[in-house]
Specification:
Blueprint (H helix, E strand, L loop, with lengths): L5 E2 L6 E2 L8 H7 L19 H8 L3 E3 L1 H5 L12 E8 L19 E9 L7 E4 L5 E4 L2 E2 L5 E2 L2 E5 L3 H4 L2 H12 L5 E6 H10 L3 E5 L3 E2 L6 E2 L2 E5 L1 H9 L9 H21 L6 H13 L1 E4 L5 H10 L9 E4 L2 E3 L7 E3 L3 H10 L16
Parallel strand pairs: 3-16, 4-11, 6-17
Antiparallel strand pairs: 1-2, 4-5, 5-6, 7-10, 8-9, 11-16, 12-15, 13-14, 18-19
Helix pairs in contact: 6-7, 6-9, 7-8
């Protein structure tokens, strides 16, 4: 068995998989679609040793969502396509602490997206849930089995820290009536490493960003962002627009499309070492539901998403309005929110009326 030269990454030294030409068309299909991140493993199909498979496979962490939630879930309709809850975790533990000064303890779901891939899988819809949305958290069980009672007017991004990822999935399912087929999570350090591994991401701004908290200072126009700058970009709040979380969602959606397009343009077949580094960085910081928690399952899921083009992805923010009791918080706006969720449940196009949010940003 032959291997490419040693990968001299400062994090740890590994050998990259061989660049054999066998099954190249299949590998190209596997590498064409990556969600948020975020979340599809790019692998060279031939020439890798079993030790390499085990190494990357062992990186992935799994959460048994089905066992944690039980039977209290929306019905899976035969024509509802695929629905994936994607979270960006803002834990300040370990390597993540250095990326944000370690000022905040615990972890929260800093970014939340419901990715809907309609039947036929040729397009996708990404629905952002504002982190400051007040929701009803259902009764849930923590990973240690401790029961947590239901609570009203809970800020959405606090549920992850309070009860765990399974309860975030359960909350989204109960507020939307949409069954989540899969769960994916990537943390701060993993996001930074992924962007650096692909060589950066290009974004174009209509107005400047000057964030005194993070130090991010970008004029209007086109910029090539490295991993640290990309992390600052998707988290900036006070240095852009009206300084609200709703304004930040627009930046996050802009970056997501840019990231997906960047990965699609990468010459992964021409650089096995780079391909391996991307897969290593991604799997090291990836948590999925147990049904996707292996390289084989992730690669198969990626192949099933082959027809989805990032350029055709529609990005929508959950319609919200400012809360009557606390203007610093928002709540789902009706009937727009229900119209949006109904379209996803029935695998239909989202009506224009459901894309308009009373609360701006």
């Amino acid at each position: 068995m032959t291997h490419a030269p040693t990968d001299t990454s400062p994090r740890r030294s590994r050998r990259a998989p061989s660049g054999r030409r066998a099954a190249a068309p299949r590998r190209r299909r596997v590498g064409r679609w990556v969600a948020l991140g975020l979340v599809t493993v790019v692998l060279a199909a031939g020439g890798t040793g079993y030790w390499l498979y085990q190494d990357l496979d062992g990186n992935i962490k799994g959460v048994d969502i089905n066992d944690a939630i039980g039977g209290d879930r929306p019905e899976k309709l035969p024509t509802s396509g695929q629905n994936i809850l994607v979270l960006g975790s803002d834990s300040r533990a370990g390597a993540n602490a250095a990326l944000d000064g370690g000022k905040v303890s615990g972890a929260r779901s800093d970014t939340a997206l419901v990715m809907h891939i309609p039947e036929g899988r040729t397009k996708a819809v990404a629905v952002s849930i504002p982190r400051d949305t007040l929701v009803t958290r259902p009764a849930c069980a923590k990973s240690d089995g401790t029961e947590v009672a239901s609570a009203k007017r809970v800020m959405f991004n606090s549920i992850y820290a309070q009860v765990g990822p399974a309860c975030v999935v359960k909350t989204v399912e109960q507020m939307s009536g949409v069954r989540m087929d899969h769960y994916m999570e990537i943390d701060f350090a993993g996001f930074k490493g992924l962007v650096d591994a692909i060589g950066g991401v290009t974004v174009t701004l209509d107005e400047p960003i000057k964030d005194g908290n993070s130090g991010l200072d970008l004029g209007s126009g086109t910029h090539r962002l490295n991993g640290t700058e990309s992390l600052q970009f998707v988290r900036t709040r006070y240095g852009y627009g009206d300084g609200s979380d709703l304004g930040r969602i627009g930046l996050q959606q802009k970056f997501m499309i840019a990231l997906l397009s960047e990965i699609k343009q990468q010459d992964l077949l021409g650089s096995p070492t780079k391909t391996y580094k991307i897969a290593d960085e991604l799997t090291e910081s990836l948590t999925t539901d147990s049904d996707l928690a292996s390289l084989t399952q992730l690669a198969e899921f990626s192949r099933s998403m082959n027809g989805v083009d990032p350029a055709s992805m529609e990005t929508i923010m959950l319609p919200v309005k400012y809360d009557d009791q606390d203007p610093n918080r928002v709540v789902a706006a009706q009937p727009q929110a229900e119209q949006l969720w109904e379209a996803l449940r029935k695998d239909q196009d989202v009506p224009e009326s459901a894309k308009k949010s009373p609360a701006g940003g």
